[in-house]
Amino acid sequence: MTNTHALQAAAHCVTVPLGDRSYDIRIKPGILGEIGSCLSALGIKGKVGVVTNPVVGRRYAPGVLRSLRAAGLDVSTIVLPDGERAKSLHSVSAILDALIRARFERGSVLVALGGGVIGDVTGFAASIYMRGIPFVQVPTTLVAQVDSSVGGKTGVNHPLGKNLIGTFSQPRLVLVDPTTLRTLPPRERVAGLAEVIKYGVIADQTFFAYLEQHMDRLLKLEAEPVGHVIARSCEIKASVVAQDERESDLRRILNYGHTIGHALESLGGYRKLIHGEAVAIGMVQEAGLARHLGRCAPDVVERQRALVRRAGLPDALPETTFARLWTAMQHDKKVAQGRVYCVLPERIGKVVIQPLEREACRQWFDQQRRRGEPARPRSGPRA
Ligand SMILES: NC(=O)c1ccc[n+]([C@@H]2O[C@H](COP(=O)([O-])OP(=O)(O)OC[C@H]3O[C@@H](n4cnc5c(N)ncnc54)[C@H](O)[C@@H]3O)[C@@H](O)[C@H]2O)c1
Ligand SMILES: [Zn+2]
Question: 3-180 domain in CATH 3.30.1370.10?
Answer without folding.
Answer: no
